[in-house]
Write a structure and sequence with these properties.
Layout lengths: L10 H13 L2 H8 L3 H13 L11 H13 L5
Helix pairs in contact: 1-2
């Protein structure tokens, strides 16, 4: 018998984490991503306009960038 894996149960935790990383203060954003919120916002915009990155139904550009940066850094939070 299979146990279904549900992403829905993980969504509130992921949203809270994203808000903490990029939404609370520049200090938190710098501590987690090594860039201020302004730089992060411009970076996401650059990836969208020049790099062709697109939001999906389940994941915004900002979420995709945070997940990628944390993977590259070696910390896995998701």
């Amino acid at each position: 018998m299979h146990t279904r894996y549900s992403l829905v149960s993980r969504v509130p935790g992921q949203i809270n984490y994203m808000r903490k990383v990029i939404g609370i203060s520049d200090e938190d954003c710098i501590n987690h991503l090594r860039m201020s919120r302004g730089v992060f916002s411009r970076f996401c915009h650059l990836l969208e306009t020049s790099g062709g990155l697109k939001s999906t139904r389940n994941c915004t550009i900002a979420e995709q960038v945070v997940m990628y940066l944390e993977r590259v850094e070696g910390r896995e939070r998701f």
